[in-house]
Amino acid sequence: MPTIIDVAAMAGVSTATVSRVLSQPQRVAEPTRLRVLQVVQSLGYSPNVAARTLRTLRAAKILLTVPDISNPFFASVIRGAEEVARDAGYAIVVGDTRHDPEVEDQYADMLSRREVDGLIFLGHRLPESLKPLLAAQGPAAPIVNGCEYSPDIGVPSVHIDNAAASVDAIEHLIALGHRDIGVIAGPSISPISRDRLAGAMIAADRHGLRDRLRVRAGDYSARSAFEQADNLIAQSVTAIFCFSDEMAMGAISAIGRAGLSCPRDVSVIGFDDLPLARFFQPALTTIAQPKAMIGRRAVELLVDILRNVETPLQQVTLRHELVVRDSTATVRNGKAR
């Protein structure tokens, strides 16, 4: 098998330059970088990752933690992250924290022990064990947040504007004639749930409907929405906005159990645009998040930190989209058509 010495000899550079091209390409002049990469490809050279790890204390792994691995939303985020990480020479290690702070700390200890090079967490809490590291290194700490933006954490983040997305959802229902609207939110401890509720209130206030907005708390699961939708149906709402597609599906199931139909009697709109949303019956109107792009951009931010690229603390806001399908319809004479 070809060695790094072979590559260096054929490219006419030092072994250090070859190593730098493969680990920190932005630090090598383009002509040299291209020449080395061409030799790497022609020889079929593959670096010895284990040896490199011992020499540089680089694990070539990124830890990505999710609060609920069973939620299909995170599968798309993980896939996007893996695509970029692989191209950058890193493997993704996935940890399911199950919303448990102790488990979050256990996974975070992998970074402290240098078993991974960096952490992307898709929850709203910075693990307690990493706060000293963040205090010491600031923006240079290899930690990135995805999905749940909280400026108080002080790490780079990738997210959508959840408040603006909720404004779009409520405005869509109001444009269809709905005035008695139910909202099944997420836990109040979650920043994205608070932002989405704030957006719903902003839209309701624009039309003088705050007092007619009926808010119930769920936990992003179908079961929680199924239970809360019963109460909203009893209050004669004509539309329900759910803070996740899973909850929207649970709400639609509750509507059917009550002997009603979606959207004829009650319109429903979700959030996330899961792959199943378009195939559900009725096909789900929802807010689409760029799930894979959240994963990609989070890895890009982390790799920049790992490569010592000096950039200001970045809070990346991606675009969302209102996707209108069959689960929402207009209201006539106080009832959905």
How does this model look, in words?
The protein has 337 residues and is of the alpha/beta class. It has 12 helices and 14 strands. It has helices at 4-11, 15-23, 30-43, 49-56, 72-87, 101-112, 131-137, 162-175, 191-206, 222-234, 245-257, 291-306, and strands at residues 61-66, 91-96, 118-121, 143-146, 157-160, 181-185, 213-217, 239-242, 267-272, 285-288, 315-318, 321-323, 331-332, 335-336. It has a 6-stranded parallel sheet with strand order 2-1-3-4-5-11, sandwiched between helices. Strands 7-6-8-9-10-12 form a 6-stranded mixed sheet, sandwiched between helices. α7 (131-137) links the parallel β3 and β4.
Q: Topology, please?
A:
Elements: H1 4-11, H2 15-23, H3 30-43, H4 49-56, E1 61-66, H5 72-87, E2 91-96, H6 101-112, E3 118-121, H7 131-137, E4 143-146, E5 157-160, H8 162-175, E6 181-185, H9 191-206, E7 213-217, H10 222-234, E8 239-242, H11 245-257, E9 267-272, E10 285-288, H12 291-306, E11 315-318, E12 321-323, E13 331-332, E14 335-336
Parallel strand pairs: 1-2, 1-3, 3-4, 4-5, 5-11, 6-7, 6-8, 8-9, 9-10
Antiparallel strand pairs: 10-12, 13-14
Spatial shape: elongated
Q: In this structure, how is the largest beta sheet organized?
A: 6 strands, parallel
Distance between the termini: 70 Å
**Poorly predicted sequence stretches spanning 5 or more consecutive residues:** 52-56
Summarize it.
The chain is built from 12 helices and 14 strands. The chain has helices at residues 4-11, 15-23, 30-43, 49-56, 72-87, 101-112, 131-137, 162-175, 191-206, 222-234, 245-257, 291-306; strands spanning 61-66, 91-96, 118-121, 143-146, 157-160, 181-185, 213-217, 239-242, 267-272, 285-288, 315-318, 321-323, 331-332, 335-336. Strand 1, helix 5 (72-87) and strand 2 form a beta-alpha-beta unit.
